[in-house]
Structures are given as C-alpha cells and as structure tokens.
Amino acid sequence: MTNQTEQWTNRLGFILAAAGSAIGLGAIWKFPYVAGTSGGGAFFLLFLLFTVLIGLPLLLGEFVIGRSTQQEAISAYRTIAPGTGWHWIGRLGVATCFLLLSFYSVVGGWIFTYFFRGLTGQLIGQPYEQLFQDVIADPIGSVAAQFVFMLATIVVVARGVQSGIESANRYMMPGLFLLFLVLMVRSLTLDGAGSGVAFFLMPDFSKLSAESILYAMGQSFFSLSVGVSVMVTYSSYLGKEENLVKSAGSIVGLNLLVAFFAGLAIFPAVFSLGMKPEAGPGLLFIILPSVFEHIPFGTLFLLVFLALFLFATLTSAFSMLEVIVASLARGNEDKRKRLSWIVGMLIFAVGIPSALSFGVWSDVTVFGKTMFDAADFLVSNVLMPLGALLIAVFVPLKMKREVLIRELQARTPLGRKLFAAWLLLLKYAAPLAIIVVFLHSLGFL
Q1: Which of 72, 227, 309, 437 lies in disulfide reach of 326, CB 3.0 to 4.6 Å?
Q2: Radius of gyration from C-alpha coordinates of the chain
C-alpha cells in the first residue's frame, strides 16, 4: 500500500474541493424542497443544529482516518485495522459512490439539458410541467445528456488532484457563490419577497412534525458527503501541518451558507408570485422556471441559477469518481488517466437504465420501484446511513487515542475539552441519530 503521491496545493484548495463535494444536489435541490414541505425556518434551524452536532463530528471522523494514513479509502481502513474486515467500510464507500454517480449523472444530464435549452431560448415560456416530463422521458436525449455530464467529470478527474479537481473547484466554487449572490439579491428585491423571507427565517415550530425532524437529521449528514469515504480520500491528500478542525469548520460553514443562500434565493421568488413552497422535487425544474418567466431579465437569471446548479452537481461528481479511481490506483498516478476513463464509462453504462426509467423503461421495476428510484432508495436509505454508522463506530473503537489527539491538535486544555466533546458526539449521538434516520427511512418508525 502506497501513500498518496499527490497533495492539495494548500488548505484553501482542500476546503474548496471538499465543500464542492458536499455542496451538490443535496444542498441546492433537496434542501429547498424538503424545507418547503417541512416548516421552512424551523426546519433550517434544526438542520443547522444537527449539522453541527452530528454532521461535523462524522466529517472530522473521516478526516482523521484519511489524513493519519495518507491513503485512499480501502487502504486507510486496512492500515488502521490490519488483518480485520474493517476495510470493507472503504469498499462499501467505493461501491456506494459508483452506484450513486450512476443515477446522479442522470440528474446532471437533466441540468445540462435545461442549461442548453436556456442558452438557445427553448426554456422560458414553455409549459414547464410537460417540458420536464418530456426531458426525462426522452431516451436519446437523457442518455446523451448523461454521457456529456460523465464526460466532463472524467476529463477533470483524469487530470489529477491539483491540475484537475483542485483547479476546477478554484473557479467553480467562487463562481457558485457569486452567482448565488446575484440571484439572491434579485429574488429579495421582488414585490412580496418579504413573505418568503419570513417563511424561511422566522421559525414556526407548529409546522414541525416528527417526520420533518427526522428529515433535518438525515439531511445534516447527507449534505456533507459523509458515509461514503469521500472525505477519507480527500483528506489523504492534505499535508500534516494543516488544521483539520479549522478545515472542517470552514466546510460546514460553507455548506450552511449555501443552504441559507438557497433559501433566500428561492423562497422569496416563489412567494412573490403567490406560489407554494411545497412543490417537492419539481421545485427547481417546474416551479422556478415559471417564477423567472414573470420577472424582468428572467431568462438571464434562470441561466445564472442553472449554471450554479450545474457547478454544484459537477463538483460533487468529481469527488465520487475520485474515490473509486484513487482506490484502484492506490497512489500510482500513472494509472489515473486510464482508470478515470474506464471507471467513468462503466458508471455511464450502469446509469443508462436509470436514464431510461422515466420513459421507455418506466414499467421495468425492482420491488415496485423504477431503476432510478430503486438505485436512489438503496443509496440514500441503506448504503449511506450504513457507511456513516460504521465510520462512527470505527473511529472511537479502532483508532488510537493519541493519534486522534495529534490529528485534531488537541493538546491544549481547551483543545482537550473540545476533543472529549467531539468523541462523545461521534461515539454516542451520531450512531443513535443515524439508526433513528435509518429505521425511519426503511419504514420502521
């Protein structure tokens, strides 16, 4: 097993890449519609609390595994616990990323299609619900768009950690925040935007249900890319002199900021036109285009939104492919380019049934679900929670206390108190929360 030969240029490069991995469909697509159907501001407050108390400890857990070993996911677990089966956490992460990217790339393809339609003037003014159905049901269009999305992902990952992933994120992440600010300012200046701001920022706890509390808990660790060993791999490229706690705090902060921006960009616009925030998954593809249709320069602002949506989706895709490629290359960068293309094309092929799930293969089902929904259910409700639970158990059980203290630089009195709090949350709070969410998602609660 070879240590990683590549490293991030500096801490900023690592933070932008890790934040790019975390800020994807979960933050920009899933968060607004889940918040919209789960109480708005009250949901956001719970999400913030759970992210700090559950997501952050899990994120740091993955960081100490990767940085302490300087090895990719599978080898890292094997190095810490040799001669045991714990390396299967890494294998589970690799398999989860493979399956996740196979259907995630389908949604990425839809965004590419919408962006292209927006650029060519074929979006604004359409019957949006019918348009969305046509886009996802078109077999050739869906597969072609998925291929383009995977092509962009492969090209970046094949270039390496510094030249590919870090370089792309250095432009795409600041671009994402800039586009969000532009969109947020425009949304907040619409007539009637105050109702949307109030919905998002003034918690109404009467709207919370047991289900929305569980959604907030689940969103808190899914939105940080924990549970699939992405952060184990990314932190293995980080130098020993960098502060993991500060880096984790920055990533969590950026993730919460994007969720905050998403709420302020979307809810004021939706409320200003008298629409409902409870639109569910169609919020971004059906409701928002109709919102932009009714405001000055709507086409431009819709393109801005689709561009930032595309940036966020791609930066997450880079991290998923990187986990798989790094695990196969095992520190040998000469294999990177070839493996990126082979694995990327395999993922594309495996994702084709998901791309066809809403059209010609809509009646092909697994346990009553389409291929897309079955893959989504398996990843979101089984594999990711299982991976997060195993990591929460592995770190306190198998890693030496002195290694954890050294990696988290917890040598001062305050540092030791924070370290004890982190270990307590990771050891008890995180597993309990994950088990509760896991049982709920499977219908047992």
Answers
A1: 72
A2: 21
CA distance 109 to 246: 35
Q: Do residues 243 and 77 make contact, with C-beta atoms less than 8 angstroms apart?
A: no
pLDDT digits (tens, 9 = 90+) for 234-248: 999 988 888 999 999
162 near 6, Cβ under 8 Å?
yes
Tokens of 134: 């046509």
- DSSP-derived letter for residue 431 is H
48 touches 205 (CB < 8 A) = no
* DSSP line for 208-240: --HHHHHHHHHHHHHTTTTTSSHHHHHHTTS-T
Q: Which two tokens stand for residue 182?
A: 């532009």
- Cβ-proximal residues to 220 (8 Å cutoff; 6+ apart), any chain: 47, 50, 51, 54, 55
Q: How far apart are CA 157 and CA 347, in angstroms?
A: 14
Write out pLDDT tens, residues 16-69: 888 888 777 667 767 777 787 777 888 899 999 999 999 999 999 999 999 999
CB atoms within 10 A of CB 296: 8
Are the C-beta atoms of 355 and 109 separated by less than 8 Å? yes
Dihedral sign for Cα atoms in the order 38, 19, 76, 68: negative
Query: On the CB side of 255, how many CA atoms lie within 13 Å of its CA?
Result: 36
Sequence-distant (≥ 6) Cβ neighbours of residue 154 within 8 angstroms: 321, 340, 341, 344, 345
Q: Which residue has the tokens 């900023």?
A: 12
pTM of the model: 0.90
The answer to whether 187 and 265 are in contact (CB under 8 A) is: yes
Classify residue 45 by burial, with Cβ atoms within 10 Å: 0-12, 13-18, 19+: middle
Contact 50, 216 (CB under 8 A): yes
DSSP state of 5: S
CA angle 96, 102, 103 (to 5 degrees): 100
Report the number of secondary-structure helices (H) and strands (E) in the chain. 22, 2
Beta bridge partners of residue 365, listed in sequence order: 370
Q: b/e string for 70-79 if b means 16 or more Cβ within 10 A?
A: bbbbbbbbbb
Encoded tokens for 183: 């969109």
Eight-class DSSP state of 364:
-
Helix/strand/coil for 302 = helix
pLDDT digits (tens, 9 = 90+) for 218-236: 778 777 888 898 999 999 9
The token pair that represents 17 in the structure block? 């890449």
| 206 vs 73: CA distance, rounded Å | 43
Q: Which of 41, 11, 24 is nearest to 255 (CA)?
A: 24
